């Protein structure tokens, strides 16, 4: 059975009355009121209601107006009830008048009335009480303007149209960059916010198309608001009125839109030009006079002719300029643009506050500035030749100028300046002034109001953040598991080595770097003072050539290049996978997490533009330095941030740059015939897929889901990292929510240096920038700030349990202990004290049952273990309960970790099952997922002597978490036969 059409789902045709009746309400609805009925009574979206209305109105024989219908006497309402015939023929239902049935009927009516009130409160904008204090709403005056209007209607009127744009519309929607067509003077004019203001940072373009789409969205929503409220509609809409100039511009825009939809492109261009000139005359007469002269005497511009705007684009530009060019003389809401902006402040469940609305205003303001520049370019005609402008100014001002000089055309700069002074700056009493002032007010509220908290700590080291919950041991396990898997992927999949020992070691003590060397393509590997063990340019290529099995993977006789393209693509897939893991690892181990654009800006070598390398070597540590930050496009200021990597992660970076990158780049040049190779650490993949913040976000989600079973976001991890550092790191190196916050504790520690700088007659900042700078000091970097960054990063390394950070702490006896180290020591002491005071027999009964008793030497061995004696040797026969010797202490105090070396496979599985049954966290060792949070770790003798497990033990020692090591079946001597494990 086919599904009924959308209009038949809501309405049915009643032939005897020639009307359309709502199936649910059982009322007839006039055709022109269908949209309003569906939206108000049934909460149908505007788009769906509009589609239903169009279909219903197309029904044949439908009464369109009340005068055409013979309505029974006494029924003046626009709706009349269509009474459904009774099924049993007994007529209408009799309403009870007394008794329990009547009271139940009252209850139903009460519930319905309350439901209606709640629905109106949720959907209808209502006036607030006088004692409700909301400075933001009082400042915006949204409430009195929009009171009584349905929120769903407002949200529906700014929704995107359902229809997909065709190819021609998409081509028209592509943003044409005007930055290349104008100079810095025009861009400085367009960025002004005051009448007489000197700006030093010009108007900046958006970074990519995604940013353009995002920031043009508010203007598109306002145009949709006007389009849907200018035509007939069946819902109560906000009141506004166009000026005559705005009305004419709107009618031209609608006409061009209709022609664009119909594909009518044969109309004459003169009509559009005349209409545009008429609008310009009323907007700025003096500018139009200059335009006419400019069109008569165009300059001889050079270079390619810019792409002209289409007719609908010109009409849209004219209308938007007309909205902006509106002088407010009484109320702000006399401006249609302010009215449309009020609709953008509505949410489904309230209002957009100071934390959400200022970014919308910023987008509207910046796009408006581009519109003004585009308008200036359109009005100035071809590129003018202003080379003789300064010579004319040398004439004696006492003599009258000739007509040609008085009518000298004004260029784009003068036109933009005129428009900016007229309606784009404060003091113009225009919608733009309203936006600038409201944005400033909103930001003031935002930065002086605390945000909602999301971080909570339980059980000492367990973090609650929104829906996420994990312990610090789990967090460390995730980081080290990711480092281990990245190391395995690099050594085995990319360098074809079964273990890291076969890879040339990084000579940390002999690596030198020169941050001042800005030669293109240069990095620390090319420093003449650095002597690497092997030639990284050839090592991997020769390694592939020496192994027949590896060589056969890449070679394919008969091809032009001699290599198998599919094999190379598979290898590049492994490279891409490693780079994704490396990005997340650097993000999580470098200290304060960087933002996505900062991380993606990292380059491993200098570029032709000079000095854009971001990876350096400093005293045996890899450091990546970012120069781009979130506010660069606004302020133009470049913040230099140093993030130091732990030795274990820095080694992966050096190996990749030294041994893998040369081989990878040459493969790309050969197979994909690339003419140039990017110096970014995360360039576009060979397949063409680019690195974006969305891709970084997905990589972090994937790695956190694998390790923790939870999905982390970039913004979420940044907040969690700040919370962790405040909780466990000392004040001088704890991550700051704002990079500009003053560090009081560090300032106190450096007070002596500051006094010395003051004696020299300058501040510490100036001293770092100008005086006694090191020969190898990086451009823009200050030694004092760099040391602060290093201290913050190394504290973070120690907290994560990286061995290099722990060793640095041991060598530096003067360094203060971080709070997490003191807390770990206190927790270990408390744990051991409780264990020494433990009643072993009582704990045994609690763990197993009231009938449980010690057997043989179990009790004596347990007392020796809980007393902290070492070593303890317990000789017991098979089945005598040796496993109880580590299970009972681990069950009683689960804050630490017990490592059990078990040679027998069957015994290891049995131990794991028994521990889990007793509620003891027991994990079998896997290098890819280090069990930092486990109470018992089962490991084989072979793995126990490996490098990765040794790193795990060192991390447990550094975190004061390793309680004991148990060696089971220590009497078994390893031999070369596999049967001994049976």
UniProtKB/TrEMBL annotation:
Residues 263-279, 381-398 have a biased composition (Acidic residues). GO terms for molecular function: 3'-5' DNA helicase activity; ATP binding; four-way junction helicase activity; nucleic acid binding. GO terms for cellular component: chromosome; cytoplasm. Keywords: ATP-binding, Helicase, Hydrolase, Nucleotide-binding. Residues 863-982 form the Helicase ATP-binding domain. Coiled coil: none annotated. GO terms for biological process: double-strand break repair via homologous recombination. InterPro entries: DEAD/DEAH_box_helicase_dom, Helicase_ATP-bd, OrsD, P-loop_NTPase. Residues 259-279, 379-410, 739-760 are annotated as: Disordered. Belongs to the helicase family. RecQ subfamily. This is Telomere-linked helicase 1. It comes from Pyrenophora teres f. teres.
């Amino acid at each position: 059975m086919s599904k009924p059409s959308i209009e038949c789902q809501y309405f049915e045709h009643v032939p005897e009355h020639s009307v359309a009746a709502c199936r649910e309400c059982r009322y007839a609805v006039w055709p022109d009121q269908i949209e309003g009925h569906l939206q108000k009574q049934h909460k149908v979206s505007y788009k769906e209601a509009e589609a239903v209305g169009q279909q219903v109105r197309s029904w044949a024989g439908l009464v369109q107006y009340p005068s055409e219908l013979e309505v029974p006497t006494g029924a003046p309402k626009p709706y009349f009830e269509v009474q459904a015939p009774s099924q049993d023929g007994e007529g209408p239902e009799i309403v009870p008048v007394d008794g329990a049935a009547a009271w139940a009927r009252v209850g139903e009516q009460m519930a319905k009335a309350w439901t209606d009130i709640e629905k109106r409160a949720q959907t209808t904008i209502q006036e607030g009480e006088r004692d409700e204090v909301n400075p933001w709403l009082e400042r915006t005056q949204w409430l009195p303007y929009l009171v009584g209007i349905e929120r769903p209607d407002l949200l529906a009127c700014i929704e995107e149209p359902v229809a997909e744009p065709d190819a021609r519309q998409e081509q028209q929607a592509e943003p044409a960059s005007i930055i290349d067509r104008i100079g810095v003077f025009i861009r400085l004019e367009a960025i002004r916010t005051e009448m007489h203001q000197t700006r030093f940072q010009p108007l900046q373009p958006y970074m990519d198309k995604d940013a353009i789409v995002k920031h043009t969205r508010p203007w598109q929503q306002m145009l949709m608001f006007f389009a849907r409220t200018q035509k007939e509609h069946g819902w109560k809409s906000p009141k506004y009125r166009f000026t005559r100039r705005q009305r004419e511009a709107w009618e031209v825009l609608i006409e061009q839109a209709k022609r664009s939809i119909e594909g009518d492109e044969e109309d004459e261009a003169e009509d559009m030009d005349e209409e545009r000139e008429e609008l310009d005359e009323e907007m700025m007469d003096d500018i139009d006079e200059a335009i006419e002269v400019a069109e008569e005497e165009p300059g001889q511009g050079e270079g390619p002719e810019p792409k002209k705007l289409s007719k609908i684009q010109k009409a849209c530009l004219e209308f938007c300029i007309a909205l902006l060019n509106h002088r407010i003389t009484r109320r702000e809401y006399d401006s249609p643009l302010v009215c449309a902006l009020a609709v953008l402040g509505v949410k489904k469940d309230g209002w957009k506050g100071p934390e959400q609305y200022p970014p919308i205003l910023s987008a509207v303001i910046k796009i408006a500035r581009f519109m003004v520049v585009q308008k200036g370019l359109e009005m100035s005609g071809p590129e003018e030749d202003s080379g003789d402008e300064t010579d004319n100014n040398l004439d004696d001002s006492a003599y009258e100028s000739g007509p040609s000089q008085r009518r000298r055309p004004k260029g784009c700069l003068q036109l933009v300046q005129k428009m900016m002074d007229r309606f784009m700056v404060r003091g113009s009493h225009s919608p733009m002034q309203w936006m600038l002032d409201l944005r400033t007010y909103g930001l003031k509220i935002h930065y002086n109001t605390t945000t909602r908290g999301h971080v909570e700590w339980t059980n000492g080291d367990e973090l609650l953040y929104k829906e996420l919950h994990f312990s610090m041991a789990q967090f460390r396990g995730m980081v080290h598991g990711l480092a281990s898997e990245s190391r395995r992927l690099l050594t085995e999949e990319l360098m074809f080595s079964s273990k890291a020992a076969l890879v040339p070691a990084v000579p940390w003590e002999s690596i030198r770097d020169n941050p001042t060397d800005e030669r293109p393509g240069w990095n620390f590997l090319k420093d003449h003072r650095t002597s690497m063990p092997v030639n990284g340019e050839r090592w991997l290529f020769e390694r592939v050539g020496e192994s027949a099995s590896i060589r056969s993977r890449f070679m394919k006789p008969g091809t032009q290049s001699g290599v198998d393209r599919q094999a190379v693509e598979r290898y590049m897939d492994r490279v891409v996978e490693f780079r994704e893991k490396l990005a997340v690892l650097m993000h999580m181990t470098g200290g304060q997490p960087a933002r996505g654009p900062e991380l993606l800006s990292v380059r491993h070598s200098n570029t032709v533009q000079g000095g854009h390398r971001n990876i350096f070597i400093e005293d045996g540590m890899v450091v990546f330095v970012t120069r781009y930050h979130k506010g660069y496009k606004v302020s133009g200021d470049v913040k230099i941030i140093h993030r130091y990597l732990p030795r274990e992660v820095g080694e992966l970076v050096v190996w990749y740059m030294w041994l893998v990158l040369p081989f990878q780049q040459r493969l790309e040049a050969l197979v994909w015939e690339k003419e140039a190779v990017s110096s970014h650490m995360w360039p576009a993949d060979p397949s063409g897929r680019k690195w974006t913040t969305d891709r970084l976000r997905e990589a972090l989600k994937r790695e956190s889901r694998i390790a923790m079973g939870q999905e982390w976001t970039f913004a979420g991890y940044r907040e969690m990292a700040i919370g962790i550092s405040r909780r466990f790191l000392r004040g001088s190196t704890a991550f700051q929510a704002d990079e500009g916050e003053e560090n009081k504790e560090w300032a106190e520690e450096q007070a002596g240096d500051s006094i010395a700088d003051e004696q020299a007659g300058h501040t510490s900042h100036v001293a770092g920038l100008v005086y006694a700078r090191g020969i190898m000091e990086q451009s823009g970097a200050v030694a004092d700030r760099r040391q602060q960054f290093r201290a913050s990063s190394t504290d973070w390394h120690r907290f994560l349990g990286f061995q290099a950070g722990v060793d640095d702490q041991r060598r530096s006896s003067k360094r203060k202990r971080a709070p997490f180290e003191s807390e770990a020591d206190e927790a270990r002491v408390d744990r051991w004290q409780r264990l020494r005071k433990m009643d072993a027999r009582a704990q045994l009964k609690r763990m197993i049952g009231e009938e449980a008793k010690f057997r043989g030497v179990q009790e004596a061995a347990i007392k020796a273990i809980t007393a902290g004696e070492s070593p303890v040797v317990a000789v017991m026969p098979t089945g005598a309960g040796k496993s109880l010797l580590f299970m009972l202490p681990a069950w009683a105090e689960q804050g630490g970790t017990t490592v059990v070396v078990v040679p027998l496979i069957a015994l290891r599985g049995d131990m794991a099952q028994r521990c889990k049954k007793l509620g003891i966290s027991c994990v079998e060792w896997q290098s890819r997922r280090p069990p930092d949070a486990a109470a018992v770790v089962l490991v084989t003798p072979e793995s126990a002597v490996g490098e990765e497990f040794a790193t795990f033990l060192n991390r447990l020692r550094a975190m004061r978490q390793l309680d004991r090591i148990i060696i089971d079946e220590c009497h078994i001597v390893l031999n070369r036969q596999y049967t001994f494990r049976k």
